[in-house]
Every structure is written in structure tokens, then in C-alpha cells.
Amino acid sequence: MNAIILTAVLYAGNSGMYTSTRILWDLAYDIRELPNRAKWFLLGQLLLLFLCIFIISGQNFQAFMGGVIDWNSVVIPYVGLLLFLIVWLVYKVEHKSKLIPLKDCDFENKYP
């Protein structure tokens, strides 16, 4: 069961990375110039993003159904998200990485 969930999370992350790079390409170029464009491009990826958010937010909804909320059962499914946020924030602080404005991005060169 955990392997299935981990695979789904990795797939969602891969889809998010694919969508973000395609959106950046779309902002820099015309969408018709994409070498590989899916039939449901952007609509499909956004639908999957919202579906993943819906599934993650609905994990263990039974903990809220009783008269008393079982906080232990509520926190356990989301510990991974908290761990991810902590690791991401530590990386951002340690490497002092900043958001690069889109106008400063170089889309002409394939390699830095």
C-alpha cells in the first residue's frame, strides 16, 4: 500500500515538473512550436493537479466522522508533506536560492 502511494506521489511530482516546464516554454514561445504537445495539454495537467490535491486532502476523512476528532489519525497521513516543506525550506535558506523573474530567464540557450 505504501509503495502505491509513494509511486502516485512521485508521478504527481513528475507531472508537476513537466507541466511547469511546459508552461515556462509557453510563456516564452508560441505553444504551436512545442516539439511534443499532448492533446489535452495544460487542461489535463491542471485537472490532475486538482485531483491530487483533492485525494491528499481527503486522506483519512474517517477521523473527522466520529464525535471526537482523532488527531493522531489526522496527522499521520500528512507527516510526509510537513517533512517535505521542512527539507525544502532548509534548502532554500541554506543555499539562499531566490525566485528568478521570468523576464530574466534565458530561453534561447539550451545549456548554461
What does this molecule look like?
The chain is extended, with a radius of gyration of 19 Å. The protein is built from 4 helices and no strands. By secondary structure, it is an all-alpha fold. It starts with a helix and ends in a 17-residue tail after the last helix. Helix 1 (2-28) runs antiparallel to helix 2. Helices cover 57% and strands 0% of the residues. The mean pLDDT is 77.
Descriptors:
112 residues, 0% strand, mainly alpha
Q: In this structure, how is the largest beta sheet organized?
A: none
Cα-to-Cα separation, first versus last residue: 41 Å
Question: What's the helix-strand series?
Answer: HHHH
Tally of contiguous helical segments:
4
Structural class: mainly alpha
The residue ranges in which pLDDT falls below 50 over 5 or more consecutive positions are none
- State the share of residues found in helices, binned by percent: 55-70%
Q: How many β-strand stretches?
A: 0
What is the rounded Rg? 19 Å
Strand content: under 5%
Overall pLDDT level = 77
Shape by Cα distribution? extended
Quick description:
The longest helix is centred in the N-terminal third of the chain and has 27 residues, at 2-28. The protein has helices at residues 2-28, 43-57, 71-75, 79-95.
